[in-house]
Specification:
The structure is a single chain. The chain has 359 residues and is an alpha/beta fold. It has ten helices and 15 strands. The strands form four sheets. An eight-stranded mixed beta sheet has the order 8-9-5-10-4-11-12-15, with helices on both faces. A three-stranded mixed beta sheet has the order 1-2-3, with helices on one face. A hairpin with a 2-residue loop joins strand 13 and strand 14. Helix 4 crosses helix 10, helix 6 packs parallel to helix 7 and helix 8 packs parallel to helix 9. The radius of gyration is 23 Å and the shape is elongated. The N and C termini lie far apart (55 Å). Homodimer. It holds the Pfam family FeS_assembly_P.
Length: 359
């Protein structure tokens, strides 16, 4: 005999494709009625125009088709009431009341997520490209990765990922990050129409940054990379205060001027007691026909790492990311992709060591 419990057990493996939690756990199964070998099931979606409606419909039907003894069923997809959405948000917040969201679970002392700020002393060294490609390389290796585009004025992460017009899904006052290349992304880009400039003073930047933690559901995530604005301004101070245990990667090019400016960022990290994981030298050389051409000079990354008493993590060669795509993500098999894969392994190992040692 078919039971309601059997129906719910069959539906538990079905996940909401945006938040990656069971539709049963999320309270999306509103109604189950059994009549002999027939069942009527109603599943409710967060909004009427849910973009993944067809995906959920298909997966629920496949799950119901596997219930032993169930010969026929009627499936109805509805829309959540305000009360159901409130319960949905509560589950996403881990039962945390919404008024406590100013201190989200992501920032709790016992949170498992690690934060790595990717910083540079000046613009134009490819810091955002390094952030994006490191995140993708870590995702390829099985890490659950997110990026916060903390460069509120000069946001560029969505462009590097080729996200286009995609926007975060909004469930009342809760945002779900946009996902590209298996990386969760949140950026000011999603809230500024027509590439308009952001004309804000410092305090507004910090408020927006905090919203990226308090009003975004990141889910289970291993590491969040923060693409920092260049220099040592307000946003860098906010990050250091908000994330006292965050680690830091310094990006430079081989040029003497770039390394001198980057040294200031490293010194700030040291003064604020943030561990520097190491230095990434970007645009290290251009290779053609097996010969390396050091267009921007050589040795800058090594000099900077010695000055900051840290590791030279990687030397990334120049190259076009993808001639057939609008994004700036290097293919895994390219020379740059392989360099980022090595960098991802190194960063992963350092973060795992930090967990072991409790740092």
């Amino acid at each position: 005999m078919v039971t309601k419990e059997a129906i719910l057990d069959a539906l538990r493996p079905v996940q909401d494709p945006e938040v990656h939690k069971s539709i049963v756990e999320l309270g999306m199964v509103r109604h189950v009625e059994i009549n002999g070998d027939h069942a009527e099931v109603e599943v409710v979606l967060t909004i009427s125009g849910c973009p993944l409606r067809n995906v959920i419909d298909q997966e629920v039907r496949e799950a119901l088709g596997k219930v032993e003894g169930l010969k026929t069923f009627d499936l109805k997809l509805g829309t959540m009431t305000d009360e159901e959405r409130a319960q949905f948000r509560s589950v996403l917040r881990g039962g945390q009341p919404e008024e406590a969201a100013v201190t989200p679970a992501l920032l709790a002392p016992d949170a498992k997520t690690q934060f790595v700020a990717v910083a540079s002393g000046k613009g134009g060294v490819g810091k955002s490209t390094v952030t994006a490609n490191l995140a993708v390389a870590m995702a390829r290796q099985g890490y659950r990765v997110g990026i916060i585009d903390a460069d509120i004025y000069g946001f560029s992460i969505p462009g590097i990922f080729g996200i286009g017009d995609k926007k975060p899904t909004v469930i009342d006052n809760l945002l779900l990050p946009v996902v590209a290349h298996d990386v969760k992304i949140m950026s000011m880009h999603f809230f500024v129409p027509d590439n308009r400039p952001v004309i804000w003073r410092g305090p507004m930047l910090g408020k927006m940054l905090r919203n990226f933690f308090a009003e975004v559901h990141w889910g289970d995530i291993d590491v969040i990379l923060l693409d920092m604005p260049p220099g040592t301004g307000d946003m860098a101070l906010d990050i250091h205060q908000l994330l006292p245990k965050s680690k830091e990667i310094i990006v430079t090019t081989p040029q003497q001027n770039a390394t001198e400016v980057a040294a200031r960022v490293g010194t700030m990290a040291i003064q604020t007691q943030h561990e520097i994981l190491g230095v990434v030298e970007n645009m290290s050389f251009f290779e053609a026909k097996g010969e390396k051409h050091f267009i921007f000079g050589k040795g800058g990354g090594e000099r900077l790492s010695l000055e900051l008493k840290t590791d030279l993590l990687a030397q990334i060669p120049l190259g076009v990311a993808n001639e057939e795509s609008v994004d700036g993500i290097y293919p895994a098999e390219s020379a740059q992709g392989q360099a980022y894969a090595h960098l991802a392994k190194t960063i992963g190992r350092k973060l795992e060591q930090a967990v072991t040692t409790g740092k």
